[in-house]
Amino acid sequence: MSSAGARDATASSPYEPVIGLEIHVQLATATKMFCGCELSFGEPPNTRTCPVCLGLPGSLPVANARAIHFGLMIGMALGSELAPRSIFHRKNYFYPDLPKGYQISQYDEPLCLGGRLAEVRIHRVHLEEDAAKLTHVGASGRIHGSDASIVDFNRGGTPLAEIVTEPDVRSPEQASEWLKLLRSTLRQLGVSDVNMEEGSLRCDANISLRPIGSSELGVKTELKNMNSFRFIERGIRAEIARQEKILRDGGQVIQETLHFDPRPDAHPPITSLRSKEQAHDYRYFPEPDLLPVAIDQRMIDAARAAMTELPADRAERFERELELSADSAQLLAFRAELGDYFEAALSAEADPAPPTQALANWIAGELTARLGEDAGGDPSASLVRPQALAALVGLVATRRISVGAARQVLDTLVAEGGDPQQIVEREGLAAIDGADELAGIVAAALAANSDAAERVREGNVKAIGPIVGYVMRETKGRADGTEVARLVNEQLGV
Amino acid sequence: MRAPQASLFGLACEAKMSDLLSLSAAQAADAIAAGSLSASELFEVYRTRAAADRAAGADGLNCFTWVAAQRPGESSPAPLGGVPLAVKDLFCTEGVPSQSGSRILEGYEPPYTASAVARLCAAGASLLAKTNQDEFAMGSSNENSAFGAVRNPWDRTRVPGGSSGGSAAAVAAGLAPWALGTDTGGSIRQPAALCGIVGLKPTYGAVSRYGMIAFASSLDQAGPLTRDVRDAALMLGHMVGRDECDATSLAFPHEIQLPTAERLDGVRLGVPEELSGEGVHAGVLDAFRAALVRAEELGAQISDVRLPHAPHALSAYYVIAPAEASSNLARFDGVRYGLRVADAAELSDMYTRTRHDGFGAEVKRRIMLGTYALSSGYYDAFYGRAQRVRTKIAEDFSEAFQQVDLIATPTAPTVAFKLGDKTSDPLSMYLNDFCTVPMSLAGIPAISIPCGLSDGLPVGLQLAGPAFSENRMLDAAYALEQALAFDGSAARV
Question: What pTM was estimated for this model as a whole?
Answer without folding.
Answer: 0.86
